[in-house]
Amino acid sequence: MSLGIRIFLVYVLFIGLTGYFVLNTVMEEIRPGVRQSTEETLVDTANLMAEILRDDFKAGTLNQNRWPQLLKAYGERQPAATIWGLPKNQVSHRIYVTDAKGIVVLDSSGVAVGEDYSRWNDVYLTLRGHYGARSTRSVADDPASSVMHVGAPIRDNGRIIGVVTVAKPNSSLQPYIDRTERRLLAYGAGLVALGLLLGGLLSWWLSAALRRLTSYAQAVSQGRRVEVPHYRGGEFEQLAGAVEHMRTQLEGKAYVERYVHTLTHELKSPLAAIRGAAELLQSDMPAAQHQRFVSNIDSESVRMQQLIERLLNLAQIEQRQGLEEKIAVPLAALMEELLEARGGWIESRQLRIERHIAADLMLTGEAFLLRQALGNLLENALDFTPVNGLLRISAERMGSCVEIRLFNQAEAIPDYALPRLSERFYSLPRPDSGRKSTGLGLNFVEEVVQLHGGAFSIGNVEGGVEVVLRLP
């Protein structure tokens, strides 16, 4: 199981448990909260009615004036109100009044007049100077049938002479409780879903960042040239920097060891030739022979210089992970410049040059490296092209790439040599002199092409050899 999935599962567990406990706690608090608010309203209503009815109750005229008719008319009212989207078409309060003995003397429902309510808490406690309230079920087995009753004392000079009770069934509150619970569940589910989405995105981002680092490390271990992943601050940027620093240190050590070994191996031959010629020059010999040994020393020292310079250039390009600049380079002008620089060699061998490159054709990359790579290819082709031979350069756009073809008239490359042409220090003897080059030119070309994200191939074609480059 990947790290991202594990992080996401832990996040899901955390969000799920948090959402469950929070929603469960809030849901449990909705019902008592609504009832407490309703009870507070009943307290105010009961005390208001106690003040309104006090004088008539004290005078004993409650049933002799309009109060029974008023309360009956109140019970029959249809408010036709819409409260927060819910309709209210009837009043739900019941109001009754008991005397000092707990006997009902007035009831808005008209069903309990004359009954003894002295044992009900709303009457019993209020007559004794306490806060009187109760919740009683109309149907014993139905919790939804409970009714809240709140009593308020009717006082005469500080003495309690009666009780006014205001009652309200909890069933009238249930639609509001249900709607609140539904909304809360919907909002809670939405927040949980949003949290899971954010958690998924966070897990995906962490996994993607780790995958980029993993891919980079794998590519480095396979010897491929890749750029270090870029992050905007934070621990990932520090980790990427640490990995890149470690790669540089490890590769640098191995790179130096490998190049010291190859350089000493390649320098053995010219050094031995120089030393042998120097020893022979210490003895007497004819002038012609003396001149030949001096020429040998000169040619071998030039070879050593070329070897060291090209090896340094190759080492520099191999250590780079990306281009330092990306600019548009006009290919036709670049090839014209390279051919002019080698004009003397071309004229001396009377070579025929054909060019098929559009003037507006552009390469995208580092101009200096492209000039060196194409120059190496051109020199290699000129070395193997016979006198009066043909050199043809063509280029065309192929989608997002430019395909460059360099054909030179020459003998076919042996099959055993084809897969090794871009191998470091591998070289074929030149047709004219029989001498080999440093064997670093084509290897340098391959490195430059790979650094630009292109492809490079050499093959035999009818009448000669063709090199194909595909560059951005």
UniProtKB/TrEMBL annotation:
Highest taxon in the source lineage: Bacteria
Chain coiled-coil ranges: none
Subcellular location: Membrane
EC main group: transferase
Main location group: membrane
Pfam families in alphabetical order: HAMP, HATPase_c, HisKA
Reactions it catalyzes: ATP + protein L-histidine = ADP + protein N-phospho-L-histidine
PROSITE patterns the record matches: HAMP, HIS_KIN
GO cellular component, one term: membrane
EC number: 2.7.13.3
SMART domains: HAMP (SM00304), HATPase_c (SM00387), HisKA (SM00388)
Domain Histidine kinase: 262-472
SUPFAM superfamilies assigned: ATPase domain of HSP90 chaperone/DNA topoisomerase II/histidine kinase, Homodimeric domain of signal transducing histidine kinase, Sensory domain-like
Alphabetical UniProt keywords: Kinase, Membrane, Phosphoprotein, Transferase, Transmembrane, Transmembrane helix, Two-component regulatory system
Key word Transmembrane present: yes
GO molecular function: phosphorelay sensor kinase activity
Membrane-spanning segments: 6-27, 184-206
Residues annotated as domain HAMP: 204-255
Protein name (Swiss-Prot/TrEMBL): histidine kinase
Organism taxonomic ancestry: Bacteria, Pseudomonadati, Pseudomonadota, Gammaproteobacteria, Pseudomonadales
